[in-house]
Amino acid sequence: MHRQLMSALGSDIPPIAITFRSTPPAGVPAFDDPMPAPHEVDGRTGRVAAGCVFWMKSTDRTFTTVAEDHANCSVGSVTHGFKTLAEVGANTDVAALLESGWVTMDVVPQIPVVTQRPAAVTYGPLAECATDPDVVLCRITARQFMVMMDALPGVRVEGKPQCHIIAIAKEQGEVAISAGCQLSRVRTGMPNSEMTLAIPAAQLTSVIERIEATAACDNTVARYAADDMRRFA
Q1: Which residues contact 44 (CB under 8 A, 6 or more apart)?
Q2: 12 touches 107 (CB < 8 A)
Q3: Is 0.85 topped by the overall pTM?
Q4: In the chain, where are the structural domains located?
């Protein structure tokens, strides 16, 4: 299915599988990068700067994470169900986002979140996934976004924070695309040309079929347009 999805989208970035677990999985290595020093004010730290960084690190290997691994980013800790808003409200990263005007307090409670606190979240290439995941995440280009808009009319298109599309796919069973957010782009190094796509894993087969059909139509139109343009050479 990962080959079908990459081929239909015309993507060279492997899709990743994200699985929320009530117990840490046996036989899956833990993500064990060292913890940096805690923040001098609120004590935040984590294995990476934010949970969205795991998206970048899991395109070629499978690993599992726990709450403390995600804890440097209060936003991601909330969207992934590890923390409540009340638990992170006093953190300096939350204060910085509010003070900048990047987000307002009236919007924060409306951000979709994973409702049941997980014991672990496993990330890895879809091709390596040994059990059914919850969400399949793809990094996509503007052209691939175009294909998705045609394949799934009315597909949910979101903005910041980028990570909440994981909760939308898992909890609400909707395919969701995010234009990204500056917080995530800086922390992940994700190119400005990329967006993200979250697919509920249970819908993956039907989504692939619709992408393939749309891509076939686009390829036909592309051939026509290329032939027609020869008159302008």
Answers
A1: 38, 71, 72, 74, 91, 92, 93
A2: no
A3: yes
A4: 2-232
